[in-house]
Amino acid sequence: MDMKTIYLIGFMGSGKSTVGKAYAQKYSKTYVDTDDYIEVFYGQKISEIFKNCGEKVFRTFETEILAKTTLYEVVSTGGGIIEHVENIQIMQKNGIIIYLHTSFAEIEKRLKDDRQRPLWNHENLNEKKGLYDRRISIYRKYADFIIQTDQKSEAEIVNGIKKCITGE
Ligand code: S3P
Hints:
Strand order of the largest sheet: 2-3-1-4-5
Strand content: 5-15%
Helix content: 40-55%
Radius of gyration: 15 Å
Shape: globular
Structural class: alpha/beta
Distance between the termini: 22 Å
Number of helices: 8
Bound molecules: shikimate-3-phosphate
Mean pLDDT: 96
Order of helices and strands: EHEHHHEHEHHEH
Largest sheet: 5 strands, parallel
């Protein structure tokens, strides 16, 4: 069977999990979120893994888990998945990469009260903007498709993914 996994990539707060879940539900696809999988598999919250083991260890967990997701039809990834070239290779080999692009202003709005994301939950706006700017060029570089998400409803983005896949 020739089945390609749909990988959703994008910055924190770009809607990868919400939209991935909605797409999978609408089209009866198997779905997993790498962060959820990590939390279940390692028995710790993402924030605890960062606190107890640091980002470097988290990244090794992330790669290990991504490699386990190849049989899923839709996979929402963590925003930092593109930090490791090995992860990009896994996704390219096994599927289609769709980048959900969200403006920095919109992300700031969406994550204003967020307390779950260690790389966002600090006061240094320059650092966050720097991370965003550095990463968006990587997301763009490896995306097979790019979907703008600002001002779009969940349903519109789900339809956008369908269009990418089928060309309809
Ligand atoms: C991260 C994004 C998070 C999570 C972890 C690190 C990142 O996922 O994997 O906090 O490096 O951008 P979301 O993109 O789902 O927030």
